[in-house]
What does this fold into?
Amino acid sequence: ETGSQEDIAHADGPELRDVGKRYCTRSRAVCHAVGHLLYIGYGNYKDALTACDDVAPNEDSAETCYEGVFMEASSPDTRLYLDGEAPTEIAADPGVLCTSLAVKYRHACFLQLPPMLELIFERDDVRDTVERFEIAAEICTRSDKADRSDCFDGIGFWVGLNRVFDGEKSGMSQGSVCEIAAMKDDRLACTLGFAQMIVQTNRKVAFE
It folds into this structure.
């Protein structure tokens, strides 16, 4: 078993596609990890996502595999754009990174969009949480209803992680950050993403 784990950790994309089917049947968490490895193995979104479709035994497992792909792609060490190349300039509308994909991939993409937006925050030296939130929210409002909801869900997810949108840096409780959103539906989508992350990590959060 240890040898098999070492094999999958060092496999390239096509090899991972072959062995990923076995691993993805074990649990959602393992299939999520396979998504991370598929992105590393292929070095681009499109091939890695297609591989997720191939290795995942059902839609639920496929979704968690997609999330692994986008999470790996948005990490500081591997933060790349759709073609697998390091960006030479930041897209005018970063949301297009997600809306350009097939619908089934978009929720997972939007879930990991906020850490990609750190490219913008770093470039423009944006440190204030409210300003960061408003920039991200403005990007979300350019999308249609379903994508917009997924986009705010992603913001809330990262509010829950206390990363990208750190309320304490602006004198806010973490539980109140989603209230920055102007529209009720947007606040609700953000709060749902926030709650999802809090449940997953069993965090204790202040709301006042």
